[in-house]
């Protein structure tokens, strides 16, 4: 099939293997486009996308906006902080008002898990989840997998470690779902308090030993501690210094490995906590490739969903 099986992108769990391949194929073509002197194509001309951000973002918001512009779409941007949400307007009312202005697609980030799906159930317009609470961040997982495929080819059989605050991470959940669909072996690593007990049911290994995990993996995806989502009354680890000692990636740890590994991070990075600068900026880090590929992957998702309308 040459079209997506879904009308919305609310999570990786709803995508088929064919959907993933279609997105990667389109992203490969769009990556070529955005590296040309003229980076724009008319694919979404006369198409209007609303970017609704109810939570802070740098990479995802800019990346979607750039992807939409490269596809020649018209754009409206909404951030909750300076909107009538502050006056008590509901999510449904906010979105219905925006849709009344004839918007064709909605990109949405929201602190509450399920908010994009709630919206998708209520409106005819396609909804793309740009991160919903601790639930999913599908385009991050797609760009991560695409970046790995560009570096390493087929991901089947590859050992990928996801390290850090798994409990509060939508990136971890979407990455696990995506990597498993592509046949990779996935191990999560972090303190017991930051790894949910049910995670093994997703078909991943669990480790609390970073050095052993680094020896096992081909790729380490380092996640930040999501302080903003943690219950402040319950300390999950004694101190940031202790966390960095046990679970932080640094040049010393990398130097002790028998082979080089690929280093990933979705950003924003807390340098000196989950990763030191010498590791984040090393020759094996693909952090900025992830950001570049984010535009191509989001162009692919926008284009393929628009083709279904
Ligand atoms: N990776 C990511 O979602 O970053 P932002 O929160 O800056 O969008």
Outline the structure in words.
With 309 residues, the protein is α/β, with parallel strands linked by helices. It folds into two domains: 12-137 and 291-307, Rossmann fold; 139-286, 3-Layer(aba) Sandwich (Rossmann fold), CATH 3.40.50. 39% of the residues lie in helices and 15% in strands. The protein is built from eleven helices and nine strands. It has a five-stranded parallel beta sheet with strand order 7-6-5-8-9, with helices on both faces. A four-stranded parallel beta sheet has the order 2-1-3-4, sandwiched between helices. Helix 1 packs across helix 11 (287-307), helix 5 (138-152) crosses helix 6 (170-181) and helix 5 (138-152) crosses helix 11. The two termini are 16 Å apart. The mean pLDDT is 95.
Secondary-structure topology with pairs:
Blueprint: H1 17-34, E1 48-53, H2 59-70, E2 74-79, H3 91-99, E3 105-110, H4 115-122, E4 126-132, H5 138-152, E5 159-163, H6 170-181, E6 185-189, E7 205-207, H7 210-216, E8 219-222, H8 240-247, H9 251-255, E9 262-264, H10 277-280, H11 287-307
Parallel strand pairs: 1-2, 1-3, 3-4, 5-6, 5-8, 6-7, 8-9
Phosphoric acid mono(formamide)ester (CP) is lined by residues 57-60, 131, 137, 140, 266-268.
Record keyword descriptors for this entry:
alpha/beta; Rossmann fold; globular; 2 domains; 11 helices; five-stranded parallel beta sheet; 309 residues; 9 strands
Low-confidence stretches: none
The CATH class assignment of the largest domain is Alpha Beta
CATH superfamily of the largest domain: Aspartate/ornithine carbamoyltransferase
End-to-end separation in angstroms reads 16 Å
Per the CATH scheme, the topology name of the largest domain is Rossmann fold
- Please, how many domains? 2
> What overall geometry do the principal axes of the alpha carbons give?
globular
Biggest sheet overview? 5 strands, parallel
Bound molecules: phosphoric acid mono(formamide)ester
Query: What structural class do the secondary elements suggest?
Result: alpha/beta
Strand line-up across the major sheet: 7-6-5-8-9
Which strand-content bin applies to the residues? 5-15%
Rg from alpha-carbon coordinates = 19 Å
Which architecture of the largest domain per CATH?
3-Layer(aba) Sandwich
Order of helices and strands: HEHEHEHEHEHEEHEHHEHH
DSSP helix fraction: 25-40%
Number of strands: 9
> Helix count?
11
Overall pLDDT score: 95
């Amino acid at each position: 099939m040459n079209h997506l099986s879904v009308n919305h992108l609310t999570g990786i769990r709803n995508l088929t293997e064919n959907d993933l391949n279609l997105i990667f194929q389109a992203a490969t073509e769009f990556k070529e486009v955005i590296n040309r002197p003229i980076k724009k194509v008319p694919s979404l001309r006369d198409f209007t996308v609303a970017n609704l951000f109810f939570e802070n973002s740098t990479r995802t918001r800019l990346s979607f906006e750039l992807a939409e512009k490269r596809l020649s779409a018209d754009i409206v941007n909404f951030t909750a902080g300076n909107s009538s949400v502050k006056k008590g307007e509901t999510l449904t009312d906010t979105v219905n008002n925006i849709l009344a202005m004839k918007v064709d697609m909605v990109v949405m980030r929201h602190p509450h898990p399920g908010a994009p799906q709630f919206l998708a159930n209520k409106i005819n317009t396609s909804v793309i989840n740009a991160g919903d609470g601790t639930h999913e961040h599908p385009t991050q997982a797609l760009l991560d997998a695409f970046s790995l495929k560009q570096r390493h080819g087929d991901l089947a059989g590859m050992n990928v470690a996801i390290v850090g605050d798994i409990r509060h991470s939508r990136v971890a959940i979407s990455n696990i779902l995506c990597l498993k669909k592509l046949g990779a072996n996935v191990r999560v690593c972090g303190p017991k308090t930051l790894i949910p007990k049910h995670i093994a049911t997703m078909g991943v290994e669990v480790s609390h030993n970073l050095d052993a995990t680094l020896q096992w993996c081909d790729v380490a995806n380092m996640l930040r501690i999501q302080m903003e989502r943690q219950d402040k009354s319950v300390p999950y680890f004694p101190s940031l210094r202790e966390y960095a000692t046990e679970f932080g990636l640094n040049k010393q740890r990398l130097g002790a490995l028998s082979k080089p590994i690929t280093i990933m991070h979705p950003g924003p990075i807390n340098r000196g906590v989950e990763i030191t600068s010498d590791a984040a900026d090393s020759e094996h880090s693909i952090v900025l490739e992830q950001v570049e590929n984010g535009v191509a992957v989001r162009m692919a998702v926008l284009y393929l969903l628009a083709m279904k309308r």
